[in-house]
Design a protein that fits this description.
Blueprint lengths: L3 E2 L3 E5 L5 H20 L5 H10 L2 H7 L5 E8 L2 E10 L5 E9 L8 H15 L4 E6 L4 H10 L2 E10 L2 E9 L7
Parallel strand pairs: 5-6
Antiparallel strand pairs: 1-2, 2-3, 3-4, 4-5, 6-8, 7-8
The structure holds coenzyme A.
């Protein structure tokens, strides 16, 4: 995993000691996404599930799994961005399950930094492909993914909670051009 820093942001691995703050970050992030993009698109039960799914306790369990990876962006010692996902053994396939940047730090290139660190990590693990699911309503996320080279691979009608999703993928490793 590429671990780096510039004057404002440090990119590093998510550790057990970060789980509490990461869970709180997820809760704030879901509330923000809900208010700005998901109200009327994604049902309220989904909101509660997402909070639980990335709670401190759930993260502590995930961190025991060697295939799990978490990457954190830190701004002045505080979490300002997170990306988490899984490598599926030696299959050559990885999924990104969560990416978020704190609203006050969006448009600073942190999303791209997190995606770059993720790609380095999964390429080193021998992956040739990385995918993620997103919602069409999450326009900044879809744009970030397109900018990073993920292509829409499938439209998933009424996937989770009755909402439509998009599967987006990037082919890396031996297919990587840079
Ligand atoms: C998606 C998200 C992670 C982007 O993070 P970010 O740090 O702001 O992204 P960057 O600054 O690296 O910007 C990269 C590109 O993303 C796109 N982008 C970022 N914010 C955008 C916005 N508000 N509107 C449209 N495009 C946007 C642009 O293409 C941008 O490139 P550009 O600046 O050259 O136009 C952030 O908006 C976020 O946390 N959103 C809420 C959580 C979320 O939707 N997660 C994805 C769930 S699937």
């Amino acid at each position: 995993m590429v671990v780096g820093s510039d004057s404002k942001v440090k990119i590093r691995k998510l550790r057990k000691g970060d789980a509490k703050k990461a869970g709180q970050f997820r809760e704030r992030n879901i509330a923000w996404m809900w208010k700005n993009y998901l109200m009327g698109v994604y049902p309220k039960e989904a909101y509660a599930f997402e909070v639980w799914h990335w709670s401190e306790a759930s993260l502590m369990e995930r961190l025991k799994d060697p295939e799990f990876f978490g990457i954190m962006a830190e701004c002045e010692g505080e979490i300002c961005g997170i990306l988490a996902g899984m490598v599926y053994g030696k299959s050559g396939f990885a999924m990104v399950n969560w990416i978020a940047v704190a609203p006050e730090h969006q448009h600073e290139g942190i999303g791209i930094k997190l995606m770059s660190a993720m790609e380095e990590h999964v390429a080193k693990r021998g992956c040739h492909k990385v995918s993620l699911h997103t919602l069409p309503a999450l326009v900044p996320a879809v744009r970030l993914y397109m900018k990073f080279g993920l292509l829409p691979e499938a439209f998933l009608r009424q996937q989770w909670w009755g909402a439509d999703f998009i599967l987006m993928s990037k082919w890396i490793g031996k297919y990587r051009k840079h």
